[in-house]
Specification:
The chain has about 300 residues and is of the alpha/beta class. The chain is built from 8 helices and 13 strands.
Length: about 300
């Protein structure tokens, strides 16, 4: 099974940890970025910093830089997001059977579990792998570790009663040649679905959603989605494909307040609707650099 990947070089915060987590398991990685170093909303992006990180990790010459024109004035940011991913996926599909599409703030902490599921998805005739992610909202402090490894406390999305849930921002691997419909989503694909329990744990999915395979919670991909310093979070809200939703001042104020009061945010989760429910968890820190102004 020939496995390629693509990444969007826009956000350096967890890029090193993300790319390193799957680098040894793929043959080719397409590095897509806007040639003007602009985001889908037209704001400046630290593309040069991202490319330096890629260069440091790419000791085997697997990465191929593919610039393009993805800032399209007047276009909806989410449409431009989808356009860039389609272009990158088309290039990455050349000579591949499957293509990974992890964002640069997603870390594959258990490659054997992920790749094993992908092999079984391929054998089942699927064209997309829905693999669970743990969605992190904020880093809220240090945590002691008996093993000596770096650990931190995080606010993680949960059920109303603090049980783990799986997030699915889109299939994390798709069959070569797949056409994306919106961002990473490919609704027409034949999906092989993995979850952290034998039944669906994603509140955004129907209760009857089929689960083909179960992995341990520690095998799920870790998505450091909103784990940023305050300055980095403001910039993320400005360049995201979802900027229309995130740019409302209340979204940022809630994030900042909950980051400062994590135990209250977790305790009041039963009073709120999905996805505003959280629990406090302890997790190993991602290797490499984290967001500026924060550990590690």
């Amino acid at each position: 099974m020939r496995l390629h990947a693509y990444l969007l070089a826009a956000d350096p915060n967890y890029l090193a940890a993300s790319l390193s987590s799957y680098y040894d398991h793929v043959e080719r990685i397409i590095v897509s970025y806007d040639r003007s170093h602009r985001s889908w909303t037209g704001t400046p992006l630290p593309v040069d910093e991202c490319l330096e990180i890629v260069k440091e990790i790419d000791v085997e010459g697997r990465c191929e830089l593919v610039p393009g024109d993805f800032w399209r004035p007047g276009a909806d940011p989410l449409d431009s997001d989808t356009h860039q991913r389609r272009v990158a996926l088309a290039v990455a599909s050349e000579g591949a059977d499957w293509v990974l599409q992890l964002d640069t703030d997603e870390v594959m902490v258990s490659p054997p579990a992920f790749l094993g599921a992908l092999g079984r998805a391929d054998a089942a005739g699927a064209t997309a792998l829905d693999y669970p992610s743990r969605w992190l909202y904020a880093r809220v402090g240090d945590a002691p570790s008996r093993s000596g490894s770096r650990t931190g406390r995080y606010l993680e999305m949960s059920t109303a009663w603090w049980r783990p849930v799986a997030g699915y921002p889109g299939p994390l691997a798709v069959h070569a040649g797949t056409r994306l419909d919106l961002a990473r989503q490919a609704p027409s694909a034949l999906r092989y679905r993995v979850d952290v329990r034998p039944w669906n744990t994603d509140p955004a999915q129907g209760r009857g959603s089929l689960v083909h395979e179960v992995v341990g919670l520690d095998d799920a991909v870790v998505h450091y989605s909103w784990v940023r310093s305050r300055d980095a979070m403001r910039r993320k809200f400005g360049w995201s494909g979802h900027t229309g939703e995130y740019s409302h001042p209340l979204v940022y104020r809630r994030w900042a307040w909950r980051s400062a009061h994590p135990w209250f945010a977790a305790a009041t989760s039963p009073l709120r609707r999905h996805p505003e429910r959280f629990r406090v968890v302890r997790l190993p820190e991602p290797p490499g650099r984290g967001p500026e102004g924060m550990r590690p």
